[in-house]
Design brief:
337 residues; Rossmann fold; single chain; alpha/beta; six-stranded parallel sheet; globular; 10 helices
Length: 337
C-alpha cells in the first residue's frame, strides 16, 4: 500500500507516529507532508528508515497514493484545522485517511460526506471496540512469558523499544507477539486496542483481552507501554497496562537528557527510583521485575558517548541496557530468554 504521511511542522522529532510508520509499517511511503521541511528528503532528517520526499502539501504529491496517514498527534489528540485542505485533497483523490486522534474523522461532516462520495475509508485508529469489560485478573494464566515496557515519561521510546525487542526475538527464532496499545503501534500492526481511549473501568480489561489472545498462540508477548506513573495527565493508562497485562518482566525506557515531565514544568525523579516504583506498583496484582532498560540516545552525537550514557543508565537501574535503534536490544532479550 502506498501512503503519504502528514507531519506538518513536527517532523521528525515530534512526529513519533510518522517515524514509527516509516521504520516499521508494511507501507510504501511516497511522501511526507511538512511545510517547514519542504524540498528535503526523509533521509536528511532520519537515516535508518525508508526514504521519501518531504513536500508542503497533499497537492504537491504527484505519485499514486492509497491512503493519507496523519502521523502526528498533538497533546489532547485534537485535529488542527490547517490540516483540512490536505485531508480534503486526499479524499477527493479517492485516498483513504487514517488518523490516531481523539478527534474522529468519521464524525466530521465534511470528511464523512467526501469519503462517501469518493468511496474512501476513514479509519479512526483511536476508536475502541464497544464490547469491552472490566479485567478479571487472569492475564497471568497464559503460558507465555509476558514483557511490558514502562517509562520514566511519555515519548521516550516505549513503542520503539517494544517493537525492536519483538523483531529481534523473531529473528532469533523465538515465537513472539507484539501487543499494540497506542495509535502508532496499531497503525503498524493493523489491529489491537487504543488503551488511552477506553473508558477507565475497562482499560485494564482491554489489555487483559489482548494479552490472553496473544499468549494463547505465542511463547513471548511484548506489550507496548504508555506514558509513565509519574505523568500528571497520562498515568492512568500506565496503570491500566501494568495491571491488565500482569507481566512477568518489565523493561524501563528513558530518553538520555530528559530532566522534566513532557509538557509540564515538573522535574523527573531520579532514574534509579523508577525500578522500585514500578516493581512496587505491579506487585499487589502480579510481581514483575525490571530485567533491563532501553535508553533513547538520539540527542547524543557520537556512538562512544552513547555507549557511555547507556552504561551509566544500566548502572543506575542495576540491569543490562542498550539503545535498541542505535545498537540493538539483544542484551535485554537474552535476559528475557
Amino acid at each position: 500500500m502506498k501512503v503519504a504521511l502528514l507531519a506538518h511542522e513536527q517532523f521528525p522529532d515530534r512526529a513519533k507516529t510518522a517515524v514509527g510508520v516509516l521504520r516499521y509499517a508494511d507501507y510504501d511511503v511516497v511522501a511526507v507532508l511538512d511545510r517547514d521541511n519542504d524540498g528535503t528528503r526523509v533521509h536528511d532528517h532520519v537515516a535508518d528508515v525508508q526514504d521519501a520526499p518531504v513536500v508542503a502539501s497533499m497537492s504537491d504529491v504527484d505519485a499514486d497514493v492509497d491512503a493519507l496517514v496523519i502521523g502526528i498527534a498533538p497533546i489532547g489528540g485534537a485535529f488542527e484545522e490547517s490540516w483540512r485542505p490536505d485531508v480534503r485533497n486526499a479524499l477527493e483523490r479517492g485516498c483513504d485517511v487514517y488518523a490516531g486522534l481523539h478527534y474522529f474523522l468519521e464524525d466530521d461532516e465534511e470528511f464523512a460526506s467526501l469519503a462517501a462520495e469518493h468511496g474512501c475509508e476513514l479509519w479512526d485508529v483511536r476508536k475502541p471496540p464497544a464490547d469491552l469489560g472490566v479485567a478479571d485478573g487472569v492475564a497471568d494464566s497464559v503460558d507465555a512469558t509476558v514483557v511490558a515496557t514502562v517509562g520514566t515519561d511519555c515519548s521516550v521510546g516505549k513503542m520503539t523499544a517494544t517493537r525492536e525487542m519483538y523483531e529481534y526475538a523473531r529473528e532469533e527464532g523465538l515465537d513472539a507477539a507484539f501487543v499494540a496499545t497506542g495509535q502508532t503501534g496499531i497503525l503498524i500492526e493493523g489491529e489491537d486496542i487504543p488503551v488511552d481511549r477506553v473508558v477507565s473501568d475497562f482499560a485494564a480489561g482491554a489489555v487483559e483481552d489482548m494479552v490472553l489472545d496473544a499468549g494463547a498462540d505465542h511463547d513471548y508477548v511484548f506489550v507496548e507501554g504508555q506514558a509513565s506513573l509519574v505523568h500528571p495527565a497520562y498515568s492512568g493508562v500506565t496503570a491500566s497496562i501494568l495491571h491488565g497485562a500482569m507481566p512477568d518482566h518489565l523493561v524501563l525506557c528513558h530518553e538520555h537528557g530528559r530532566e522534566s515531565v513532557h509538557g509540564y514544568d515538573q522535574a523527573l525523579p531520579p532514574v534509579a527510583s523508577f525500578v522500585d516504583r514500578y516493581e512496587a506498583f505491579a506487585a499487589p496484582v502480579k510481581e514483575a521485575d525490571v530485567v533491563g532498560g532501553m535508553l533513547n540516545t538520539r540527542g547524543v552525537d557520537a556512538d562512544d558517548d552513547a555507549r557511555e550514557a547507556i552504561a551509566d543508565f544500566a548502572d543506575a537501574i542495576g540491569a543490562p541496557a542498550d539503545d535498541p535503534v542505535r545498537f540493538d536490544p539483544g542484551s535485554v532479550v537474552e535476559v528475557i530468554r
